[in-house]
Amino acid sequence: MVFKKRMIFVSLFACLTVLMSLKLFALDQSHNIFKQRREKLASMLDEGIIIIKSTESNQRNLYEFFVPNSDNHDFIYLTGLETADATLVLCPGSPEYSEILYIKGNHQEIKKVAGIEHVFPPENLMVDLSNAFTDFSLLRYTQRIRKPLSSEISRVLYNQGKKKVIYFNFPRFVNLEERPPERLDFIHRIEKFSPKYEIRDASDLLNRLRMYHDEYGQEQLRRAVDITGKAIRECMKSVRPGMTEAQLRSVFRFVCDFNGTDQLGFHTTVRSGPRIKGESSSRRTKVMKEGELIVIDCGAEVNHYTADIKRTFPVSGKFTAEQKKVYNILKRVQEACIRMVKPGVTMKDLQEKAISLLDEAGGYGKYFGWGTSHFLGMDVHDVGNNLIPFKPGIVITVEPGIVLPEFSVELEDDVLCTEDGYEWLSQSIPREVQEIEEFMKKEGIGKYLNE
Ligand SMILES: [Mn+2]
């Protein structure tokens, strides 16, 4: 009897263990951030399928902030993978084949990272889609059995209505002077087969998703800001008259690399002395002189998320009285704008506030010639609709400046909109005059580089 009881107990325990491990496995899968993102995207879809192609690089663009792999960010956002020649197909209308990935490499590993069950080599894509775009009801029963995936996509497309809707990742920016990206050939080829295909831009859905950062995205941004802060501090400690702007840029890059960034989110600017109108300042190499102010505009990138921060500090380690006065005006204006950030506020509100405060402080509004804010995320000027009121999860920069003929002061900070206000991600990077001057007395690595 005792023995039996023990047996029952042991089997119960074994059953529980199995159940618990299954539960854990299920939790693990549902906690895959990329899977969650795909499910959210799928829930926004009213009909059709989504095809997202990875890209090696995008068109040469007209904007300095559009980094070479910007076009790949949708694919990385949804899969966590950055392999070239890969295609993600989402077919939410199919219970069995809602997510399919065509990609090179170790498929077991890929399944784990992306949380996708159906992974195939890239060469299967055209065959599978050719079958899928053939009317399901025209297929013989044997074809349906042998090609379950294609039959499923076909069934979904043909059952949903008169139009066969395909969402596709078109580029965000257009440069008509350059050859169009190759992936557009693929979508145009599909379009030619039937007037029933309706090709829509997946960015209409993806922008609405990507502009509100999930926990994972927020965490990567905090890490990117943190490393950027370390590198800026090192630049403050390292600078001295006689050093070139390029040398200070290399200090920034070194500290970022040292702290494990994958790459920089955009080309670093180090500008000493006044801004010159029309000059592209990102590749300057000028020697920095006593009495000048330096503006550094920079951002480390962590897991494809970038910071975007500006600090202004004196080459000599000490602000002049005039520099200090103007700097403090800008600092107060920027702070007031940052403290405005909360749900419901718009970018236009911040812009108007910045201009009016700069004007009140002594007519400085006319010395500020760019936008106060832009979205920040995987791209340094990230996707999102900048006309609608803020909601929790958006991350913006707040970056007013005062550009005088003699010198310019510029500050840029990264701010997350929360439920009831904001989180100032870059607040701890030195910005008070006294704090900067004290900090600059310390020895930095740049001071030893010419020994
Ligand atoms: Mn910026």
With strands numbered from the N-terminus, the spatial order across the biggest sheet is: 4-3-2-1-5-6
Count of DSSP E strands?
Answer: 17
- By CATH reckoning, the class of the largest domain would read Alpha Beta
Q: Termini, distance in Å? A: 85 Å
Structural class, by secondary structure, is alpha+beta
**Which CATH architecture of the largest domain is right?**
Alpha-Beta Complex
The major β-sheet equals: 6 strands, mixed
- Contiguous low-pLDDT stretches (5 residues minimum) are 15-30
Query: What share of the residues does DSSP label as strand, in percent?
Result: 5-15%
Write down the CATH topology of the largest domain.
Creatine Amidinohydrolase
Oligomeric state, counting identical vs distinct chains = single chain
Hetero ligands: manganese (II) ion
Structural shape? elongated
Detailed description of the structure:
It contains 14 helices and 17 strands. The protein is α+β, with helices and mostly antiparallel strands and 451 residues long. The protein has 2 domains: 34-210, Creatine Amidinohydrolase, Chain A, domain 1 (3-Layer(aba) Sandwich), CATH 3.40.350; 215-448, Creatinase/methionine aminopeptidase superfamily (Creatine Amidinohydrolase). The strands form 5 sheets. It has a 6-stranded mixed sheet with strand order 4-3-2-1-5-6, with helices on both faces. A 3-stranded antiparallel sheet has the order 7-10-11. It is elongated and about 85 Å long. It starts with a helix and ends in a 12-residue tail after the last helix. The structure holds manganese (II) ion.
